[in-house]
Task: structure prediction
Amino acid sequence: MASKKKTSSSKPAPAHAKSPVSKSHHVHAPAMPLRAQTAAALESYFNHLNGDRPAHLYELVLREVEEPLFRAVLEYVDGNQSRAAEVLGMNRGTLRKKLRDYRLSGTN
Result:
């Protein structure tokens, strides 16, 4: 079976991409899609409540996802907030506010 070479492209990876490759070019084993990982994490969360009732789950999930997302994107764009905002599809001012909220920084 012949191996296929990956070619680099200037197009961003689709949101549903299953095999992320970090910027440092370390190849990871095929990963479970983010949606499936999220579903599994939520199922585990509910299974481990031990009778407790969750509150403010939406805010909890956003906090748990946003900070690592912003960290990963900032690393990907070498700290450039303008490029990070473009990658995220959000206004740069909104990104800057969220970075302040999470005490994260970048350049520009």
Notes: The chain has a mean pLDDT of 80. DSSP finds four helices and no strands in the chain.
